[in-house]
Each structure stands twice: as C-alpha cells, then as structure tokens.
Amino acid sequence: xxxxxxxxxxxxxxxxxxxxxxxxxxxxxxxxxxxxxxxxxxxxxxxxxxxxxxxxxxxxxxxxxxxxxxxxxxxxxxxxxxxxxxxxxxxxxxxxxxxxxxxxxxxxxxxxxxxxxxxxxxxxxxxxxxxxxxxxxxxxxxxxxxxxxxxxxxxxxxxxxxxxxxxxxxxxxxxxxxxxxxxxxxxxxxxxxxxxxxxxxxxxxxxxxxxxxxxxxxxxxxxxxxxxxxxxxxxxxxxxxxxxxxxxxxxxxxxxxxxxxxxx
Amino acid sequence: xxxxxxxxxxxxxxxxxxxxxxxxxxxxxxxxxxxxxxxxxxxxxxxxxxxxxxxxxxxxxxxxxxxxxxxxxxxxxxxxxxxxxxxxxxxxxxxxxxxxxxxxxxxxxxxxxxxxxxxxxxxxxxxxxxxxxxxxxxxxxxxxxxxxxxxxxxxxxxxxxxxxxxxxxxxxxxxxxxxxxxxxxxxxxxxxxxxxxxxxxxxxxxxxxxxxxxxxxxxxxxxxxxxxxxxxxxxxxxxxxxxxxxxxxxxxxxxxxxxxxxxxxxxxxxxxxxxxxxxxxxxxxxxxxxxxxxxxxxxxxxxxxxxxxxxxxxxxxxxxxxxxxxxxxxxxxxxxxxxxxxxxxxxxxxxxxxxxxxxxxxxxxxxxxxxxxxxxxxxxxxxxxxxxxxxxxxxxxxxxx
Lengths: 264, 401
Known about the structure:
The complex is a heterodimer of chains A (264) and B (401).
Chain A (H helix, E strand, L loop, with lengths): L2 H8 L4 E7 L8 H11 L3 E5 L10 H12 L4 H8 L11 E4 L2 H7 L1 H11 L3 E3 L5 H14 L3 E2 L1 E3 L5 H10 L4 E4 L13 H12 L6 E4 L5 H8 L4 E4 L1 H8 L6 H12 L6
Parallel strand pairs in A: 1-2, 1-9, 2-3, 3-4, 4-5, 6-7, 7-8, 8-9
Chain B lengths: L15 E2 L2 E2 L8 H16 L1 H15 L5 E3 L1 H7 L2 E5 L10 H14 L4 E6 L3 H13 L2 E7 H6 L1 H9 L3 E5 L6 H14 L4 E3 L10 H9 L1 H14 L6 E5 L4 H7 L9 E9 L10 H4 L1 E5 L2 E5 L24 H9 L2 E7 H15 L5 H7 L12 E5 L8 H6 L6
Parallel strand pairs in B: 4-14, 5-6, 5-8, 6-7, 9-10, 9-14, 10-13
Antiparallel strand pairs in B: 1-2, 3-4, 11-12
Helix pairs in contact in B: 2-4, 4-5, 4-9, 5-7, 9-11, 10-11, 14-15
C-alpha cells in the first residue's frame, strides 16, 4: 500500500509534514536530514527539488534553492541520493515537491520510474495545471504508484476545490493565506473561517495546512479543523542556523517543540 | 480584428499556440488568471472600451505613428526601407499601446493597484504613466542591476509617482523582476492587476498583449497602401526579447505567407560565447513564467542567465506565439551581436537623424543580412527611441568618430 494512504488511514489528526530542500545546506545532507526527521517523529516529509525561479516561494526557500543549485544539486543527483533508502530503514512517506520544468527536462516518464524505484510516494508540482495533469500525467503517475497533491487557497472557488479534490490523492495542501511560502500568517479568525469552510465541504482527501506555520501555536491553530500542517521555511531557517554536529538534536527539539502533545 | 479561421499561429480556445502557451501557474494565481481569461475578450470588444482605447491612442499616445521612407538608409542597404515610428509614441516606445489597453481592463475588473516588471524601464515608465493618468497605485519591480544601468528611467517612474522596487534575487535582471512581480500578485490576489509588458506569461496575457500591440500592423497596412499602393510589404523586421513589438508588427500578416517575418534576437557577445540572449539559437522547449515556450536552460531545466547589451532583450525566453512562429518556420530568427546592434544604431543616427533604442538596433542590424532586392519593400518596426541608451552609446562614440 502507498505509505501516504497507510499514514492517513491510521492517523487523522495532528499530522506533521516537514519540508526541506534537497542538497541543502550541503549537497549530501539530504538523506541525513530525512533520517533525523523520521527519528524525530515527522509523519511525512516533503523534499524540495531546487529550481532557479521558484515563484511560489518566499525568500527563505528561494535562497535554499539557490544554495542547493550552487552545491550542484540536480533531479538526477537526488535520485542517486535516495537510492536504497527504503532498504536502509527509511519508512516515512516521502513526497517530492518542485516546479514542472526540471521534471519535464528530466523526462516525466523517467522521473516516475525513478520515484517508484527509490520509494517516493507522491508529488507536489504547484505550477502543473490541473487539465495538463489530467490529460497527460494522471495515468502515468498512477501507474508508478505516485499520489498527487494539489494546492487550495482562500481564493479558490468551492467548485474548483471539489474539482481539485477529485483529481488529488494523498492530501489537499491548504495554503493558509494569500502569499508565498514563509509569510508571517496570523492564524486569525479569517484563517479559521476559511479552514472551517473547507472542512464543511467534506472533501474525500485529508487536508494539511501550509504557509506560515512555524511553531506550536500556529500548528495547533492550523490543525484544529484539518488533518495537520506543513512546516517549510521555519525548518529551513533552523537548518541554516545549526551546525552539522548539532543538527540531529536540533531537529528533535524542533519537532517536539511544534507538536508538544505528540506521544511517540 | 479577430480571425475566426483556425490559424496555426494564433491562440486556440485552450490558450495554446500549437504545443506552446497554456497557463502554468500555481493555484495562488489561478483565480486572477482565470478572471482575466474569462473576461478579456468580452471587455476588449465592448464599444465603450474600444472608444476609450482608440481615443487615448490618438490623443494621448499620439497615434497613428508615421511610416517613414528612409531614403538614405535604403540607398545604403540597396532596398526600400520603411520605418514604423513607434519611437514617437508618448514615453518613447511601443510599450504604452499595451499599458493603455491593460489599464482599461484593470479598471473594468475593479482593480485599484497595478504591479509590473520592467527590464530596460520602458515598460515600467509606460505603466507608471498610465497609472498616473488613471489615478491608480503603481508598483514596478526592476532588477537591481537594471536599475543601475537604466537610471534615467528609474527616475522617470519615480517622478510619475510609482514605487520602484529592486529585485535582488537571482541575476537581478528582467527574469527576476518578473518573478518578484508574480510573487507580489500572489500576495495581493483581489485588488491588484499585473500588467505584463510583453507577450509572455500565462494565457491570456500573450494574446491580450498581442491584440493591444496589433495596432502597429493595422496602421502599417493602411499607411503602406497610401505610400506604395500595396498593403503588404515583402519583409517585416522586429526585435524580440519577450517579443511584444514583433507580435504587434507581425499580427495582421501572420496568415499572409508572402510577407516574410524576421525576428532579431540578441546574440550578446556572440551565440557561442556564453554571454548571449539568443533564445531560439540556444534554448529548447520548457516552461517559464507561466507558459510553455522556448527558453535558455541547463540540461537539468534550470533557467540560465542571459546576457545582452540591451536590457530589454536580456530575457531567457520568448513569447509562446514566437516559439510557434520559430518552430513552424513562419518567422526567421536572426541572432544579432552587441557590436552589430551598435553599428546599426550609429548608422541610422548618421543617415536618418534618428537615434534608435538598443533593442530596436538589433532589428535594424538584420537589414544587410536578409538580402532584400532593391524593389522589395522592408518595414522595420522602430520600437523605441535611444535616449535611455545614451550612456551606453557615449562609451562607444570614439569608435564611430
């Protein structure tokens, strides 16, 4: 069974998804960080494939993308790094997140084959249009056991939310407020009303909230009406400010700090 | 103006030009882009819109711009050269045709704030100008490097009341200014309209901008008829960064195969030097700024940094319609080096008393290369004037003494 499906069958609240950029801070940090996150108790992990022009991302993730590219990170290198992780005790569900062009240049079919070979469970490609997905990629992704996550924002019309929910498997990524990643979302009444509105739609997929989630308070507020939340920029900032030796402990502390009530 | 027959060179009902085009935008931009897509044709076709648009083009922009027979240049090249004088538009370039059109669309969609990107600053100035005219707030993103090399335009925008924000990510040029403008639009989804300056971006931008610029070829048809008794030239020449002046100059000739369309790209220091912006020569199909097109990129699909002496051509992609014109062979793409462009700029200045923009000089540099016969008619879209490039030209004055 797909690890994402399995996760959401067993866990329906307080799911924590952590994003980090592949090849950052150093080229070969990808797998050690993945392992630390699993050990710290992250429920799923989103690995960013760095891109030169990430328009949906704020400054923190942009800079991590640029540094990863400067380190020599590529889609091909990422698959090399992820080779055999499933044989080496990595069991956490993994999503690859990135922009469409590097995937298209790598070859979408070859990309899917590699995902399946190394044990990737799903993809988030924010600039892949829904109709292009349905026409060209849906069957291909499904054939390789890849689930597809779509984004929904406070401006997304209810009919389109239903349409995205029908096309998605895995989960629906709820963007907390208008903006790029790393914005300072005030988890106010507006956001709460939006999350309640989505809940009332009775979607078939679980929902995770992202953009502006950085600590226990925002995680709790985001999870109140949803399946859980996603942390990205705040985690990237942690990686930036922590030395390699202290990283493992810092990641444990970070995850425990975000979700203090979690019983491992 | 609309062509109902299915032309392979015009946008189809799904927003594509053959394999190019589409709207590859994150969900955060989907409502804005969909709103525009669902309304732009209806809004543009309204009689009230057309009345206001035509009135402003006439009384504010100064249209129609002249079609000028360049006799001394013609004699030098050995063919018949007409210059479509877009440099005489208010603000000094064709860019204002589009910003007038888009601000009227923005008003009708109830938007109160305008965001734009700019490379050389011409589009930024044209946007700041129409925002002042209509009383809308204006924010222009400009690469930090471009702000230095195009300082007079930065000052013009500020004088017009616009806020100019330096784009400090990536190469700090046009591509990054475009990224920042898109991020701004993502963060302000309800009250802001993004005025893209070229025929790039997600559908419907490439088609909408081309329609607003199509006034260029509409005027060429009637003016050429008056000058020569024929409506179609043998050649139309225009420069292509994103490609908006070319899209306008080609527009009404796309389906007339006897008119040869020539697009000048910036080769920079030379196509093979690693310092170039010649997209069709160096690029391959991919996705950039919301559309499937041809772009300069690494093997891994990372967008590469272009280089050109001309800030307006310093862009790693081209509009999706131009990608289709290239792929089908409908237009011929010629790479012009910095040096060839400078030669052409000084040649036009000395022979005709017209200092062209560096962008435009790339189109002029094609004249000796296309081998037009003496009795053939060549129209060059003189997209902008060269005042903004004086600092660059001054550095080379002695070479042309």
